[in-house]
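Task: complex structure prediction.
Instruction: return structure tokens for all chains below.
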Amino acid sequence: MSEPRILTGEHLISGNEAVAEGALAAGLQGYFGYPITPSTSIMERVIKRIQKIDDRISFVQMEDEIASITAVAGCSWTRKKAMTATSGPGFSLMQEGIGLAGFTETPLVLVNVMRGGPSTGLPTFPGQQETMQAHFGSHGDYLIPTLVPSSIQECFDFTIEAFNIAEALRTPVFVLSDQIISVLKERLIIPEADEIEIVNRASPSNPKITFKGEEIDVDFVPPHNAFGEHEKSFATGLSHDPSGHVDLSADNYEQLIDRLHNKIMKYQHLMPQPDLFNIDDAEIVLVAFGSTARACRRAMILARKEGLKVGTFKINTLWPFPKEQIEKVEQGRKILVVEMSRGQLIWPVERYVHKHVHHLAYYRGQIPTPSIILDKIRKVLGGDNK
Amino acid sequence: MTIDFTKLHHNFETSLTSKMLPTIWCSGCSLGSNLQSIIRGAKQAGYDFDHDIVMISGIGCTGRASGYVNIDGFHTTHGRALPFATGVKNGNPDLEVIVFSGDGDLFAIGGNHFIHTARRGTDMTVICNNNSTYGLTGGQASATSFEDTVTPTTIGKNDKPFNLVDLALGAGATFVARYTTAQYNTLPRVIAQAMRHDGFAFIDLVSGCPAIYGKRNGYPTGEYMIKNFKEASVEIDTSDPSYLLSENTAIEFDRKVGYTKIPIGIFRSSTMEGKF
Ligand SMILES: Cc1ncc(C[n+]2csc(CCOP(=O)(O)OP(=O)(O)O)c2C)c(N)n1
Ligand code: SF4
Ligand SMILES: [Mg+2]
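Output:
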């Protein structure tokens, strides 16, 4: 019995299942992975589904995460949409392949379902400790769009966005989810297939593509010359010229590094923008993403009942960081960063907020509950600067 | 003497990416001849260089080969040619996938990928330019360096080398051969056979690094090396099943004179249910 690729309708499913459905809806053609909690159910859902879908979608269980990300990149070079999913320890192993994929402009999607680290850490408990690794984990200068869902609907929507950004900008894209969202079940609405925007990367014969109505500039994002298409396609992880061949000269290298950065920044506005709640009259703004952003919104509602003027700045694209939006919000308001880490999200916020930033760093393998956040809000508004 | 490379011609000019020439390879190195054997093998097998063949390599002197042949190619990170190739073959099963990489790349840092790719039987042709050293980084010991040889990372003796034929047979490769650079007349035919093989095909292409490892260990020039390969090569006798025993497939080496025994031939060519 075959099933449609896109399961239009209403579902009650988990975040990981929604990620898998999002990938299928976006046009997934290859999955390569290695099991690790709490990401495994993404792979299992994909395998279960692809056996019932008529399209050819390859799956290989690889020997480790280094192999997984590298195979995803290889598959992508045949003009196929490919992905992997992992968690902390696997994300560390994937850093080498992430650098390769970024530098060779290989579209792919990597979902990292965060648990507590470091090392094997807290396999079954949540964390948000790969915030900086997503930006700086591999060696060298690079920038990879990083989407951070906080609901089951966003797990689905952002996975589709991730594939579209990957294809439009020829880049790896991360989806950073966390253990809580991975297992949380909520209502998911999957739209009709023709209501979902699907972007396919440009090719030499079809160089003009649009994403969200905007034409992608080929000077920033060269069309992909994939294998098997008469293009004598070549790529290397060494510094390279526009044809893909080795070129280690200074000017060429600098231009390449700049272009790879600029192509992401130029289209930052096409990535999910932050959600702002109750900002206008707020005295204090909670800054968070993922499952902590849910707790923050609840804390905000409780605080408002007490007459405290609280707003929430929910980050949806973590990298590139929503610099301009946070700069607007911070004026005349206190800022409180809430995260499941000893201090990572605070870094970019401190960089762009030009005053003392309050911090609720919660690293216990548990989410900070709304009442814990509310306590902190009261303290901050009461003048406690700790 | 300065050479004007624009005036030189090569038999396989159209098969090479001319703007990348000359190669980074030392004169006397096995690599030039080996790459030519691969090109001839692919032509014999009838592949169209414009669209149905792709070469994946890792990092090392050998790794640079993928940038020199005028076909689709990818120069991956160190050790990762096989997982990348796995992705390519799964993405487009119509492509003939050749992996050409070094012994360090395929069997030290990439060793785990090798046994698993062989076990899965993914349809590809893997050719190891086995020069028993890390050529690119200056001749350090590799997983196939011989015990009594000297390298900058040798203290006393090197660890025991892998016997790549034995390893590939054990890991489940369905086509396993070994030849040396010196069998340049036989190699294209064997490579063509490996490419047409439906499954995981492996060739241990015994090669030399005369500029570094050879200089320190008994074969100081390319010329000597080729002579040495010819003299040391022993065709296996497949009528006697004992040819498959580890001791009969092992390469022997003497630091003073170079190779003393290299069992060559096709060790396995079995049909299996191909993955694609
Ligand atoms: C992760 C990583 N570690 C180390 C290196 C340095 N390195 C480059 S090539 C090489 C060894 C190459 O040896 P081999 O694969 O036998 O190739 P050859 O140069 O002999 O052809 C090493 C260790 C690297 N590039 N990447
Ligand atoms: S260093 Fe050795 S392996 Fe590398 S090109 Fe020179 S001779 Fe060949
Ligand atoms: Mg070597």
